[in-house]
Design a protein that fits this description.
The complex is a heterodimer of chains A (about 775) and B (about 325). Chain A contains 20 helices and 30 strands. By secondary structure, chain A is of the alpha+beta class. In chain A, strands 3-5-1-12-9-10-11 form a 7-stranded mixed β-sheet, with helices on both faces. In chain A, strand 23 and strand 24 form a beta hairpin. In chain A, helix 11 packs across helix 12 and helix 18 packs across helix 19. Chain B has about 325 residues and is an alpha+beta fold. Chain B has 3 domains: about 60 residues, 2-Layer Sandwich (Uridine Diphospho-n-acetylenolpyruvylglucosamine Reductase, domain 2), CATH 3.30.43; about 110 residues, Uridine Diphospho-n-acetylenolpyruvylglucosamine Reductase, domain 3 (2-Layer Sandwich), CATH 3.30.465; about 140 residues, Enolase-like, domain 1. Helix content of chain B is about 35%, strand content about 25%. In chain B, strand 10 and strand 11 form a beta hairpin. In chain B, helix 10 runs antiparallel to helix 11. The chains are: A alpha+beta (about 775), B alpha+beta (about 325).
């Protein structure tokens, strides 16, 4: 179903936080202040790789207005953080490995004094060789950035004999693809307010995607019991994976405790660029072969990921890229090796798509090249080679069976955009006119498409807890509590719709609690497209006991048999049945009255479970997959090589759509992010320093760069026995647009693109070639 | 004259003094007094980014120019229009005098930065930066700049924009000069304008007037790294008079973009001057632009790319003029 306002009916529900956000009234955590608050600033390394020979903070400490200065000597616990591998110093002791590395931090009574105090801290460095190229890092004589060397992680998937098979393939395509260091570019930069409480606890108001994980990491740094720390983490002005890892929390916490006063930290955009995570730049070499009938035979892949100075989630990202570089296709012979390498280039980490974007760009690029080599329509070629519903997953693991792949492929084939492609190919044979009737001759148009099979959840072998709490609170509202976060994706509205669906109540009857470790149970992180599924599964588990309890209480109060009671608007309603149809007669008791009659935690229900994983012992292997197909039409101006995205079509098989407006928002937002990844975004570094230090040189798409139209076609059908409900769609809008655009560029200009963002040098043509094509004003 | 500092009970070396002169003469006096420690501030939209990026140090003394009366607005005189240097880009981009007598400048104003910047940024600031997107557009209109400085005894004087750019190129820019305004000559009264709107593939133009067989043709093109709110990679402007036969005279072409200084392309102009443009010359013209325009490379675009794009834009712009001519019969 094409999703839009008309097709969504009553489910087209305005976001609860919409008006506040649109009017700017909403206060993010970084907008908060506190009485007596200090301003914290961090001194970051001047060099991408150096030894610290000496560190003198005395001048800063003595400067009037400075209240606290911290260095590594002030870290009572583990002076390291990192979600997966804690190898990043909160405050560096003797070595710096990137220009965002923190050496000291200051809390002062004004932001200006804090900034000035940083200039008073004297650091003496011994500058070391800067490793900017992962291949250099792999050389034997390269400096070792970490005690174990420069390799963070390796992956390997092999079956059959790809080397031998490639030699015997009728057609082989070999190509090297490379992708940019994309920045999350969230609206709200990293920051927070850190308040030491009178009872000896610490309250951290700072955005994150996983409050409990932050709590654990901060406690580890402070050497505290976790329970002494309260993390309040929503609402968030965007994250996209970038705020899952700690950023300013160590400094805010340490400064607040040392000074005994609230401390506010808030990165400027430049500091955010300098210290923040980026998407892993990857170089992916692929050699893919097929037989004379166009059937895929062998696939050899080598992935080199630049993970930067520290680990964070670099290893799982490489796992994900490895899993996704085989696409949703059938293979006889597979030979894949990946390596994630430490360098002195910033820090790469979690980012929407999680390594899938890079892998799918390469894989789909191979598919288009192979199809062209054998002279087949690219979509028919994919159809021919697609995996079957009962096939094992890419890592030969058992996965949950759906028909999603087949469905998205059919939907795209029937889309009006894809069907227009044929018309363009008649008009445009690469270097002839594209749309002669309305465009000047230097404008070329093309349409391309790509396919994605995207795993959700963290994968086998990684702790992936889920859960939730459902209660009737003292105000008489049905209250759902999860440790998920609202960072713009529309989680609150999605939860609201789920609750309304379950209890037939109104928005006013509902309370949603998220983002506060003192008030929510541990239900895992908001990452890996998992929150919607987990919340839905949690509520399914909690619904029955909750209903049973409040209906029983309603019976106790009213004397009406339980089987004649149901939840509804503002309370419990009596129902009758007529021809199997439920008829709501009247409200017999309010939620508030039931809440008033509660004894203790009578109406509080918790559940704990884990995200579904494959039973096969394949680390990182996924069980639930979402499928998507994307078509894109582009216009290439060959005078400048500028590419413009026109119509775009996304079809997504992710189960029932809970929140149509949120669904479209996620796909459209992901798509625009992918547009930036494809055409303009790259955090350029030279010798370990960012050249793009701010948003004036780092180009995210603006409103005029966006598609001229975007259709979202949701395939909601799931197998009858499917117990997992709606799948998350936070990432899938972002993973397959790039190869669709580059395929369209190929059709428009005849140029294959292997490097992102697309280089205009590749697409510019000499003025006047159209004269030779017979296009002339006279 | 007012002067204030940010209030602070602590003495820190961080807070600049902001001066609010009530006349241009006062401003020049202040600039001479504080020299390199002072800077003139108009809209400060560009300076702010340069300070933040460390390209310039934030000055100890900021001399506001927006407190000086009489530097805003566009006025019409008998043979010219004068644009106050403090006129915002937004005002320029909606002014009819600008549209009629400085069409490429008018178009440029609509494509600089973003609406919020155009509200605050001034035409004088755009020019004073020496790399603003207005400059190629002004060059093809033979714009003159009105300055005030001590060297000329605080008497306003006019200077050709092209001459000032040369001074900048040679590092001989007057350090204390204030740009008071920009002067554009009006066209001959019986010429009619024919301007190619960047946003449209058709011309917003008039037919030949009854009294003249010549009319002005012009266009302005900017290529950035995205569609809008982007620094320029390449900016070109073209202006000429054309008769019914397609003969071009008074041809003016300019190219700029990025951090490079814009320049007139005199050899290209010479190539076209007095000629009936033949579309077969498109490639030749593009190549000539490439050869003549001196640009530069940075991490975002090579010099070769910039040159080729400039050539393409100018050649294609002219091609479009002829194409539209043909369409119009």
């Amino acid at each position: 179903m094409l999703l839009n306002r008309e097709s969504s009916g009553e489910r087209w529900r305005k976001r609860r936080d919409g008006k506040e956000k649109v009017t700017g009234e909403l206060r993010y955590l970084t907008d908060m202040t506190a009485e007596g608050m200090l301003y914290g600033r961090v001194l970051r390394s001047s060099h991408p790789h150096a030894h610290i020979l000496s560190l003198d903070t005395s001048a800063a400490e003595n400067y009037e207005g400075v209240v606290a200065v911290i260095t590594h000597r002030d870290v009572p616990g583990l002076n390291r953080f990192g979600i997966a591998v804690p190898d990043q110093p909160a405050l560096c002791e003797d070595t710096v490995r990137y220009i965002g590395d923190a050496i000291a931090a200051v809390a002062a009574i004004t932001p200006e004094i804090a900034a000035y105090a940083l200039s008073l801290i004297h650091v003496e460095y011994e500058v070391l060789e800067t490793i900017t190229d992962p291949l250099r890092a792999l050389e034997d004589n390269a400096p070792r950035l970490h005690p174990q060397g420069n390799i963070l992680h390796r992956t390997q998937v092999k079956h059959g004999d790809a080397g031998h098979a490639l030699q015997n393939c009728a057609y082989v395509v070999k190509e090297v693809y490379s992708t940019p260091r994309q920045m999350h570019a969230y609206m709200e930069t990293e920051g927070g307010l850190f308040i030491p409480e009178p009872d000896g606890r610490l309250t951290v108001y700072a955005p994150t995607q996983h409050g409990y994980k932050d709590r654990m990491q901060i406690a580890r740094i402070l050497d505290w019991e976790e329970e002494r720390i309260r993390v309040i983490s929503s609402p968030i002005g965007g994250s996209f994976g970038g705020k899952d890892e700690l950023n300013v929390q160590p400094y805010g916490s340490l400064l607040a405790l040392k000074s005994g006063r609230p401390v506010k930290m808030h990165n400027s955009r430049m500091e955010s660029v300098r210290a923040g995570l980026k998407r892993h730049p990857m170089k992916i070499e692929m050699e893919t072969g097929m037989d004379e009938y166009g059937r895929l035979q062998a696939h050899r892949v080598r992935i080199v990921a630049d993970t930067g100075a520290y680990a964070t989630l670099g290893a799982p990202v490489l796992n994900f890229a490895t899993e996704h570089c085989m696409g949703p296709y059938r293979w006889e012979h597979i030979d894949i090796e990946g390596v994630s390498v430490y360098t002195n280039n910033g820090v790469s980490g979690e980012f929407r798509g999680f390594g899938g974007n890079q892998a799918i760009f390469a894989m789909e690029g191979q598919m288009d090249r192979l199809a062209e080599q054998i002279g087949m329509d690219p979509w028919e070629f994919r159809m021919l080679n697609r995996r079957y519903p009962d096939d094992p997953g890419p890592l030969q693991q058992e996965i949950w069976r759906t028909n999603g792949l087949e469905q998205v492929m059919q939907a795209l084939a029937q889309s009006s955009l894809w069907q227009r492609r044929e018309a363009i190919s008649v008009l445009s044979v690469h270097d002839s006119l594209s749309d002669a009737s309305s465009s000047p001759p230097w404008i070329k148009r093309g349409i391309g498409a790509a396919l994605a099979m995207h795993g959700a959840g963290l994968g086998y072998g990684i702790d992936d807890p889920a859960g939730g709490r459902l209660s009737l609170n003292a105000s008489g509202q049905i209250e759902a509590a999860f440790s998920y976060e609202e960072f713009g994706q529309g989680l609150i509205t999605t939860l609201e719709i789920m609750l309304i669906d379950l209890f037939h109540c109104t928005g006013e009857d509902i309370s949603i609690v998220i983002g506060d470790t003192d008030r929510v149970p541990h239900s895992g992180s908001s990452t890996a497209s998992r929150s919607t599924t987990m919340a839905w599964m949690g509520l399914q588990r909690l619904k029955s006991p909750f209903l049973q309890a409040i209906l029983q209480k309603a019976h106790d109060i009213t004397g009406i048999p339980v089987d004649q009671l149901t939840t509804g608007e503002q309370g419990i309603w009596q129902i009758t049945w007529e021809d199997d149809a439920e008829i709501r007669q009247k409200r017999v008791v309010s939620y508030r009255e039931i809440a008033a009659a509660a004894q203790g935690n009578e109406f509080v229900f918790d559940t704990k479970f884990s995200y579904p994983t494959t039973p096969d012992e394949v680390v990182g292997g996924h069980f639930l997959y979402t499928y998507a197909a994307v078509a894109a039409e582009v216009e290439v101006n060959t005078l400048s090589g500028h590419v413009r995205l026109l119509d775009t079509y996304h079809t997504v098989a992710a189960g029932p759509v809970i929140n149509p407006m949120g669904f479209i928002g996620q796909i459209e937002g992901g798509s625009v992010m992918a547009l930036g990844f494809t055409l303009t975004e790259d955090a350029v570094m030279e010798e370990g320093h960012y050249i793009t230090r701010n948003m004036d040189t780092y180009m995210i798409p603006g409103i005029q760069d966006m598609h001229t139209s975007l259709e979202v076609d949701a395939i909601e059908e799931l197998p009858d026995n499917d117990p997992f409900g709606p799948r998350g769609i936070g990432e899938i809008g972002s993973v397959a647009l790039a190869p669709a655009i580059t395929a369209a560029i190929r059709q428009a200009t005849g140029t294959w693109v292997t490097h992102l963002p697309v280089s205009r040098d590749q697409l510019i043509r000499r003025a006047g070639v159209w004269q030779q094509e017979g296009v002339s004003p006279r | 004259m007012n002067m204030y500092q940010h209030n602070s009970s602590l003495s820190t070396p961080l807070v600049p003094t902001v001066w609010e002169p009530s006349s241009a003469e006062e401003a020049v006096f202040l600039k001479r007094q504080y020299g390199a420690d002072a800077a003139y501030i108009a809209g400060s939209t560009l300076l702010r980014t340069q300070w933040e990026n460390g390209l310039l140090s934030m000055p100890e003394h900021m001399i506001r120019l927006d407190t000086i009366p009489g530097l805003r607005g566009i006025t019409e005189h008998k043979q010219r229009i004068q644009i106050g240097a403090l006129t915002s880009l937004r005002e320029c981009g909606k002014n009819q005098l600008m549209r009629i007598h400085g069409n490429t400048c008018y178009t440029a104003c609509c494509h600089i930065a973003a609406p919020s910047i155009r509200n605050q940024g001034t035409i004088g600031g755009n020019i004073s930066s020496a790399v603003g997107d207005m400059i190629p557009a002004l060059l093809v209109h033979d714009a003159r700049l009105v300055w005030l400085d001590q060297a000329n005894h605080l008497a306003p004087y006019e200077q050709e924009l092209i001459d000032w750019l040369e001074q900048v190129r040679l590092g001989r820019r007057s350090p204390d000069a204030i740009l008071l305004g920009i002067v554009l000559d009006k066209g001959e009264p019986d010429f009619v304008s024919m301007h190619h709107d960047q946003e449209e593939s058709t011309f917003a133009c008039n037919s030949f007037s009854e009294s003249s067989s010549w009319r002005e043709v012009s266009f302005y093109r900017k290529v950035g790294r995205r569609e809008a709110f982007t620094p320029s990679l390449v900016t070109v402007a073209f202006r000429a008079l054309m008769n019914r036969e397609g003969t071009l005279v008074d041809v003016k072409m300019a190219a700029g973009g990025g951090a490079g200084l814009a320049m007139r392309l005199s050899r290209c102009e010479h190539l076209l001057e007095g000629q009936v443009y033949d579309p077969q010359q498109t490639a030749t013209l593009a190549a000539q632009v490439e050869e003549e325009w001196a640009s530069y490379s940075d991490p975002f675009a090579s010099e070769a790319y910039r040159r080729q794009t400039a050539g393409n834009l100018l050649a294609a712009g002219l091609w479009e003029i002829l194409y539209q001519e043909m369409e119009r019969g």
